[in-house]
Amino acid sequence: MSIEAMIREHPQVSASTYNEALGKAVRHAMYCSAICTSCADACLAEAMDMDQCVRTCLDCADICAATARVATRRTGSNREVLVSQLLTCIRSCEVCEAECAKHDHDHCRRCAQMCRECADDCRAAMESIQAEMA
After folding, report:
1. What is the pLDDT of residues 40-83, one digit of tens each?
2. Distance of alpha carbon 17 from alpha carbon 129, whole angstroms
3. What is 3-133's CATH number?
4. Annotated domain spans of the chain
5. What distance in Å separates the CA atoms of residue 118 and residue 121, rounded to the nearest whole number?
6. Run of H or E including 24
7. CA distance 29 to 66
8. Confidence at 15, pLDDT banded by 50, 70, 90
9. 18 to each of 9, 32, 40, 108, 111, how far by Cα in Å?
């Protein structure tokens, strides 16, 4: 089962209206939310003070989850809000990536990588939506 297939099967989505870039962004936002949550949990177990990394990861996890939820909805249209949410997700992922990059932990490296991928996919989705709006 994939989220892309679920979106494609929506009654208001046809082969010509399915946005592949947005489907990929939804999938990566869901993964990023889980990875950021896991990283925050791992940060709590570290001996050093990781408070800022925990906060940044949890904020990013929540924003990614909200982005996936908004982007999954295909009934009607709310492109302006979707583009705003994608921008917020991109920025949150950039902040989280930068914070995690400060730490020499495998979980932080993995989280930074996921945030980078999610931000890239959200950029591509946002560009495809803006092209549709033009």
Report:
1. 999 999 999 999 999 999 999 999 999 999 988 877 778 899 99
2. 11
3. 1.20.1270.360
4. 3-133
5. 5
6. helix 20-45
7. 9
8. low
9. 9, 22, 34, 34, 29
